[in-house]
Amino acid sequence: MAIRTRKNITSLFPFLLCLLFLSCHDKAKEQSLDEREQALTEKENKFASKEQDYESLLRMRDSLSSIKTADTNTTRWPAAISGLWSSKLLCIASSCNEYAVGDQKTNESWNFTSDSSKMLVAILNNANNGLVRIYHAKYDSSGINLRFKTDSLTKRTVRMEVLLDQISNQRIKGTQTITIDSTCTAKFSVDLSRNK
């Protein structure tokens, strides 16, 4: 009986060895599958990130093309406005020491011009034809809005805003507001007439 038990054990030995081998082989396969799954997850994450970048680039492209489309209509002044205009400014209200009600400025010309991307108004000194300042312009159905602000290196912060809302072929009228250091404000009436 002891011989038979020993025979049974010896006959079971190859079977147990085979099971052991298979279980080790399964662990290796499982580890390989885990590694492949992990690699796949990393690839999915990279792909998702690239997809987000792609979507972001698409939105940016669409945004830029819509701006470009809008700008094509508004980057050039209409012929009736483009060019040089003589100016007469009259101070109508002031809380600044530099300006008094009744002060007049008549020594400047306003040049309505454009560059490749925007409309501008260059203010020129009539005495020497030198550049005084450049306004950034916006033109729509409500009129012409001009903005100028000194840079951060100047001692005084000066902000100028102009609204020109009475526009014809030979005359443009509106108001200019000058704010100095956010402490005082002066308001001028603006009267532009077409240079001949």
Mind explaining what this structure looks like?
With 196 residues, the protein is α+β, with helices and mostly antiparallel strands. Helix content is 37%, strand content 39%. The chain has one helix at residues 2-74; strands at residues 83-94, 104-105, 108-114, 119-125, 131-140, 143-149, 158-167, 171-180, 184-194. It has an eight-stranded antiparallel barrel. The chain is rod-shaped and about 125 Å long.
Summary keywords:
signal, 196 residues, alpha+beta, 1 helix, 39% strand, coiled coil, single chain, eight-stranded antiparallel β-barrel
Sequence-ordered SSE layout with sheet pairings:
Elements: H1 2-74, E1 83-94, E2 104-105, E3 108-114, E4 119-125, E5 131-140, E6 143-149, E7 158-167, E8 171-180, E9 184-194
Keywords: Coiled coil, Signal
Organism: Pinibacter aurantiacus
Coiled coil: 33-60
Report the sheet with the most strands, covering strand number, pairing sense and barrel closure: 8 strands, antiparallel, barrel
- N/C terminus separation: 131 Å
Order of helices and strands: HEEEEEEEEE
Number of strands: 9
Keywords: Coiled coil, Signal
Protein name: Lipoprotein
Organism: Pinibacter aurantiacus
